[in-house]
Amino acid sequence: MAFDVQEFKKEFQKKFEELFAYGYESGSKTEQYIALGDLVRGLYSDDWIQTVTDYNKKKEKQVFYFSMEFLPGRMLKSNLLNMGIMDCVKQGLEELGLDLDEVARAEVDPALGNGGLGRLASCFMDSIASTGLAGNGNGIRYRYGLFKQKFINGYQIELPENWLRNRNVWEVRKENKAVIVRFGGDVSFTQDGDGKLRVHHENTRDILAVPYDTAQIGYNNGIINNLRLWSAEIPYGDEAHFSTEEQREEVKRITEVLYPDDSNYEGRLLRVQQEYFFSSAGVQSIVRYFKQLKLDWSLFPDKIAIHINDTHPTLAIPELMRILLDEEELTWDQAWEITKKTVSYTNHTILQEAMERWPETMISDLLPRIYQIIQEINRRHIDKKMPLYGEELTQRTAIIANGQIKMANLAIIGSHSVNGVAKLHTDILMADTLHDFYVMYPQKFNNKTNGITQRRWVQIANENLTEMLDETIGTEWKSDPEEIKVLKAHRDNKIVLDKLEQVKLANKKRFADYVLKEMHIEIDPNALFDVQIKRLHAYKRQLLNVLHILDRYLQLKDDPKANLQKRVFIFGAKAAPSYYYAKQIIKLINAIADLVNNDPAINDKIKIVFVENYGVSLAELIIPAADISEQISLAGKEASGTSNMKLMSNGAVTMATLDGANVEIRDNVGDENIFIFGLKSDEVQEYYRNGVYNSREIYEKNPRLKRILNLLIDGSIPGVETEGRDIFDSLVMYNDEYFLLKDFDGYLQAQYEADVAFSDRDRWNRMALMNIASSGPFSSDYTILRYADEIWKIKPQS
Ligand code: F55
Questions:
Q1: Domain edge (last residue) among 429, 447, 465
Q2: Which single residue of 197, 255, 372, 571 has CA 20 to 30 Å from 641?
Q3: DSSP codes joined into one string, 548-607
């Protein structure tokens, strides 16, 4: 981008004055940020128009990534980086007496997602643009994002996240691209003169879907794709139908707030309204685009790929069928061929409680025509498969059963590709969770191991490491992440290893400053920083981490001189507001933090830091400061994990069970550069099958563990009478669903080995280096190129 520092300074000042009618020096950080963002948006608008024009002209196939959640993080720096103007802007601001980082922090981090699934969608958007693929995001513009988390007396409190309170400089409202989404109504049929059946859908409640578009800028390639988020409004000129306040509120409610559940679905009417709303709006706008191309309908799958991120957008399948059948008057067989060839589906979980199922009556009332189409898809599926696979297997794959509509079944039957998100996860889907479907459609199943974008997670989050890498191995890794492997050649280079240690130390200081300022806890940057950051869920086993902390606590109480590494245990986690047990664990961790952090006998050998309101921005601060990455879910439960990849890329050493993508991380980094412990996935399966696990017995027979668990109920930890008892019971009396007690010894042993390794600085630095050097394959650029090549059949533009 042709742009120089002097020019930038002039433009920035001008923009600021235009917007706020005074000089930038008197503006707030927020105002300075808005002026800068507005200016930057202007700088890429030509490329944005050009990209769209090119796509239209070449009629290239495009992918539309449908996701109920996106977690982009703050966009200013990532836009500057990808546009190649970071240094220029930084210097220009500096000459104006401003600090880019300070200005950037004024941006609100849009929390339009829950966790891994939403963040993956945003890494993918960055990679789609950066690898030069024609692709767009399709989602919901929630008025309120994921709740803001506060701790009061150690308990999680949820506050509304009004992320749009200031102007959102990146979005562009496109009223002329709005579409109508119809709910309810009556369906009837008439026969035409020509014998054709005509569908009439009347008395519907019509909602206007207005798109807000945000540029997704490719890395140094001039490509700018689109993320389209839909907002629900009252249709213009239809105010008569929405005359009461209640009716108007009902419309707004559809895109008012993100459901805060991760790995657990809410079978509520409003949720399914959201799902249909953005699926329908997205499909309608795609069909409108396709019609502009003036091609035969049979070519639809040659121009369009629709990818559904988990089952949340599955109604895109019957919606596309509806449009092709009712509006475009294709035959069922034509419409079905097109739909299957167009849609592909990613599964993100095997947890039964996360599988979406809607009551039949809910769908028939809310979406009568869609319901009929789902019934017909189901009827034809059963008719066709029954003679081939017999009654039992076929019925197990039915979309409708026991008064419920199973969305995963619809997604699999109505698509041409089903993928899991790590090798192990895909294997479990094929062998177990979705085995019946695998028998029917083996060719649909494939694996796409998740990835992350090192642009955000290394270049932006870890400038110190970026600089050190550039000096040591050049800049090739920035455009081709695999190239980071050349760092391996420096594994025994003492100078490089020392530099790496200095980088880590600087990042730890930065985080320590934050912790001191925001939480008034003093932590030592030389201590080992042990990090577990992810949603709070029983299967992720934050509690196992807690048991380890309590073990150390007791060791130090027994012997203040015990030979233990000084450690800071860092947690970041939100619990779903209705997930009572997870909230109890939060309270427990906060109570233990209070106890341990303030116990002079512990002498700062253990510190516990549970950051409030963990999200993308805090992740960018914590990840570069991590020494140990805790990835300790019960084997078989975590589909992939992605914080494991981010932490590895920043030189943290993984402490892991063989779950999700941890398996592939181990394969890449080698056994000597990772700490593995615990049950394997097939061993867990075996325990579930034969039912011989007895946690009570372990409790009784393991005195060390017994002593720790008793701390929960004997008053040793003040303020957790209820929580301590409930958690104790879940582990000891109710047979420990996630096998914490079984994995405890192995975990302690691995943690002990980590202590030993950390005390040998050269050894530890080498492990960190090997992790960084082995992280290239986990770039989402490669993941996305595999989706493009094997599922979407689209090629990078050059
Ligand atoms: C959100 C809403 C519902 Cl109804 C169900 C699940 C979710 C959700 O947020 N799931 C989620 O984040 N799953 C995670 O996806 C990641 C990306 O694939 C995986 O790495 C992670 O293992 C998985 O738990």
A1: 447
A2: 255
A3: HHHHHHHHHHH-TT-----EEEEEE----TT-HHHHHHHHHHHHHHHHHHT-GGGTTSEE
